[in-house]
Amino acid sequence: MTKTIRVGIIGSGSVARAHAANYKALPGVEIVGVADIVPGKAKEFIEVRQLNGASAFENHLDLLNEDIEAVSVCTPHVAHHRTTVDALLAGKHVLVEKPMCSSLEQAVEMVEAGKKSGKILTVGFQPRYDPNHKAMKEIVESGQLGKVYYVQTGAGRRRGMPGGTFISKEISGAGAIFDIGCYSLDMALNTIGYPKPITVSAYTSNYFGTNPKYHNQSEKFEVDDFGVAMIRLEGDILLNFKISWAMHANSFGPTLFLGTEGGLKANPSGQTWDSPVASMTLFHDLLGHQTDTSIPVKQHKIDVFHEKIRDFVEAIREKRSAPIPGEQIMINQSILDGILRSSKLGREVEVHIPKF
């Protein structure tokens, strides 16, 4: 008989709705409670989502006192760190939404809490479950590109600036680089094996968000809407990163992986790398001829968000390690942290990640 996994959800915003729906769709999973600091919001969430038997809490610590095995952390970005650490130290497995947190120091503390508790800490990068994302990684790992020395990635919205909590520095920590930039970084870094960063030289701005011509909450806009960075990685690799919520262009161009034996070009189907792969091309020499090989994109009906939730639950049930481990995403967060520091200081900064 399948063991029932009892879970809780911390935060009841839009992404929490997707977590609830996918937990409900899985056999042997019970949503025991929902916590939200806004009075009445968790109760309303339970009623609207028809989470029969679930309890509402205004303090996540009260939810953690319940008989549950795991939680989804779906709070605003700046609350990811505290709620995740509290959950891990309370002996609960954790699936935390992206970005992991707001700083490298916070990411380190989250990883330390996971190691101390022996519980799963996984981070919500569902694009990894797309078979075409996996195909890019397989191409690199196969050696067809030789030694990869340069990666270019990013996501460019011509217009796509959110409002509300997303533009509050106090609540979100940062803007486009946290919201969609972390996806581009995970796609690129995961494809090449997640080498650690050495230095970051970055620039960010918010010329569009703070202009009433382009944003109807411009007076409240406190975060970045544009960012670029040059990141030196271990293994003599340079990562060229670009991101925007708004700009006078429709794209930053394709993602590129350049190696000594070949190159791989990829484009997302949407404007950002939280969307499926639209095209892939392999550039290589064949019998002395410069050759471009179009790689067929696999057509599929996989719900990658559902796979993220399912894999978390199955990892708990099967006592597996974290599907997308916090130790790995700590590297992602260290780059985001470096971008913020470099942009603020106006110079290149070093990145130091503690060894565990």
Structural notes for this entry:
The protein is 31% helix and 26% strand. The radius of gyration is 21 Å and the shape is globular. Helix 4 (80-89) packs parallel to helix 5 and helix 5 (104-117) packs antiparallel against helix 11 (326-345). It is of the alpha/beta class and 356 residues long. The protein has a nine-stranded mixed β-sheet with strand order 14-13-12-11-7-10-9-8-15, covered by helices on one side. It contains eleven helices and 15 strands. It has helices spanning 14-24, 41-48, 60-64, 80-89, 104-117, 131-141, 169-172, 176-179, 181-191, 304-317, 326-345; strands spanning 5-10, 29-35, 55-57, 70-73, 93-96, 121-123, 148-156, 197-205, 226-233, 237-244, 255-259, 262-268, 277-286, 289-295, 349-350. The model has no long low-confidence stretch (mean pLDDT 97). GO terms for molecular function: nucleotide binding; oxidoreductase activity. Pfam families: GFO_IDH_MocA, GFO_IDH_MocA_C3.
